[in-house]
Design goal:
Strands 1, 2, 3, 4, 5 and 6 form a six-stranded mixed β-sheet that branches. The protein is 6% helix and 51% strand. A hairpin with a 7-residue loop joins strand 2 and strand 3. It is globular and about 60 Å long. The longest helix has 6 residues. The chain has one domain: Immunoglobulin-like. It is mainly beta. It starts with a helix and ends with a strand.
Length: 108
């Protein structure tokens, strides 16, 4: 990386590059986030996070189309998608720290 930047004309005197630099999305630990009941016959899912947080809730169908979007605040909240037909969906939570959690949801 340093040779690339030098070749592009950057002065590296004040730049430090190390292996602690992560590229990509941070993730919630799957073991710490609970989504239940799953499957759900009512279309209501409860979510429990490891700590109080706020962010966005997104639900996608199997074609990748966004079917639901909302905000969340707190350590526990509910997602109500009873309007969706029975099937398999994908939940994506993004908190205010840009940590991402994904889970398959089954609506019976």
């Amino acid at each position: 990386m340093q040779s690339f930047l030098t070749n592009c004309g950057y002065n590296l005197a004040n730049i430090t590059i190390d292996s602690n630099c992560a590229l990509g999305e941070h993730s919630f630990s799957k073991d710490l986030v609970q989504v239940y009941p799953n499957p759900s016959s009512s279309g209501v899912f409860s979510v429990a996070l490891p700590e109080v947080s706020k962010g966005n809730v997104l639900v996608y169908n199997s074609l990748g189309q966004q079917m639901y979007k909302d905000n969340f605040t707190g350590q526990t909240f509910q997602i109500e998608v009873s309007f969706l037909p029975k099937g398999t969906y994908f939940l994506k939570l993004i908190n205010d720290k840009n940590e991402v959690f994904t889970e398959k949801l089954v609506r019976e």
